[in-house]
Every structure is written in structure tokens, then in C-alpha cells.
Amino acid sequence: MAPLQTRSSRRVWMLRAIALPLAAQLPAAFAARNDAVRTALKYQDTPNAGNQCSACAQFVAGATPQAQGGCRVITQDTEISPTGWCVAFARRSA
Ligand code: SF4
Question: What mean pLDDT is reported for the chain?
């Protein structure tokens, strides 16, 4: 029978071997799209006549200016592009 320290080390190694691949997929697992509301509001990933999400009062910015963010109108969606647009666009006041 292996000493307690060795068995414990093996257990830790096995847990890491299982957990690391799962952790690598977490951002994808938490990403979400609300396709029903996107469609209803005619959301697109490109600007419209110079208007885009990053200039909209409803936009919730991501970690960087280029990162995908959220929207207070298209709820439960974490993949709103800062260069996107929809019919609910409302220019943020300066
Ligand atoms: Fe973009 Fe429309 Fe949301 Fe404004 S309301 S941030 S334009 S998706």
C-alpha cells in the first residue's frame, strides 16, 4: 500500500488533470446569446450609419474597448459587439 503522502499527491494530480481542461472551457460555457431578442431588434455585428453599440446608452462594455460586452435591452447576452447595432440604438449623451 502506498504511503498517505503519495496517495494524496496522486489524488491532487488526478483532480488537476480533470479540472484544467474544464477550466479552459469556462469562458465559452458562460458566454450566452439571446437570439430571440437579437432577431426582434434586428441586431447586427456591424455599425449602421455610423451608429454602434459602443456609443449606445444601453451598452455594457466588456473588459477592453474591443471586447464583446452586454446590453441592457438584449438581456442575458454576453456577446454584444462594440461595433454592433440594433433598432433600439440610443446615443449616449456626452
Ligand atoms: Fe447595441 Fe442595440 Fe444594445 Fe444599443 S440597444 S447596445 S445598439 S444592441
Answer: 84
